[in-house]
Amino acid sequence: MSGEGGWKSGFMDGIRRSQRATVASPPLVSAGVVASAPTVAVASGVAVSGGSIRELIFELGSLPITADSSALIDELRDLEDLKSAISARQARIAVAFDLAQRAEQAQAGVPAAERGMGVAAQVALARRESPNKGSRLFGFAKALVTEMPRTMAALESGQLNEWRATLLVKETACLSVEDRASVDEELAPDSGTFDGTGDKAIIAAAKAAAYRRDPRSVSQRASRAAAERTVSLRPAPDTMTYLTALLPVAQGVAVYAALTRTADSVRSSGDTRTRGQVMADTLTERVTGTSGGIAGINLNLVMTDRTLFQGDPEPARLEGYGIVPAEWARALLVDEQSGYEDQLHGNLEPTDRSEFRVLLRRLYTAPSSGELLTMDSKARFFPQKLRRFIHIRDNTCRTPYCDAPIRHIDHVIPWHSAGSTHLNNGAGLCEACNHTKETPGWTAKSMPGDVHTIRVSTPTGHSYKSKAPPLPGSKSTRLRN
Predict the structure, then answer these.
(1) What is the bridge-based pairing of β-strands 453-457 and 463-467?
(2) Residue 304, class by beta-carbon neighbours within 10 Å (0-12 exposed, 13-18 middle, 19+ buried)?
(3) Do the beta carbons of residue 462 and residue 442 sit within 8 Å?
(4) pLDDT tens, residue by residue, 110-138
(5) Contact in structure between 448 and 424 (CB atoms under 8 Å)
(6) d(CA 309, CA 296)
(7) Alpha helices in 162-292 (DSSP H)
(8) Which terminal residue of the chain, N or C, has fewer Cβ atoms less than 10 Å from its own Cβ?
């Protein structure tokens, strides 16, 4: 290939040929699957293989960037269309992979009710996504390929990007297959319906069409949504965090109104904090029962002795949040009014922290790697101290690309497969990943090395490695910082 037109036409032609081939392939997959074949699609004697895709990626990366403004905008649009076509291709591959896995599992005698287990997790690993995101991507792929052909055509042609196609899939999820197909036909995204349309307009059009088709299902979906109420926590910049509550609308409005009313009352009495600061402080105090929000709560803060006692700048790690500055960590443990304390308490009078008890627990690491030193146990279940040790070492779920909170401490090599109960054979996992690893064809083992490393192998023979995150003071964190 040579020149800009060469890579675009060659790549898009290959994608289109493979798309046409894959449309008709699902019903034929169950007849037999050749697991070792590297070719992923065939049409009219033309194959698209993993190797040729890598060559096209290299070709794309080696293209010069023009100085012509008009040409640059044209290429940006072409690349956006290409991203959409690739997303459509990934959706078709995910569905074909599901059928292939089910056929292989049927041949292996797996009960019908258990076929397809682990497919979404493998899709997630291949796409370098968390299992949760992989499950959503897989559901999106099945809806597009099997139920919404016109939305799929719009994605393939670049008239919709992956996110906007996802919006259409999401807003029709409560409908039957027939009604969903009818909405897809009514909206006809591949005919230019949504050209120049924003996300909100697409959502509104899909909701209206869905309600016209089946108002009862849409209403039931709204009533069922209350069962999904939850509270989540995710990191924010500068040692802050987002605490999010998903609530039914009445309760959510009531909570916000109560916080607003309290903030207005306090500020009218002369409090110098902003309205938002008062609302945040009131929420913390009412939920935890204390103004500081810490009493009765166990915070695991991992830091080096040099950071704590000698003023070393090596960052610390707060469980459930991540890396925090050394000064902030020290300020949390001692009663001093630093800039961080001012930030936390809104430049008010020093807070009484007499109820804040600090327990220091020593953790010994290997000088060369920072790896926590080992413990051993002959018990089937991990003792409490060893569980805490593994939890501190792993921090989040050890499945590659998954950063969900740890819910289970379990064996890397299962106990029923002669796996022993010791530090090197233990791993922190979220609930979903711990169940996935018990699916037939999945294996895991600890790898030798200075840092605790797990190799996860999937039923297709692909392997993925997971290394324990570096602890404060280890060589890798010092280099990174």
Answers:
(1) antiparallel
(2) buried
(3) no
(4) 999 999 999 999 999 999 999 999 999 99
(5) no
(6) 25
(7) 162-171, 177-187, 199-213, 215-224, 249-268, 275-288
(8) C
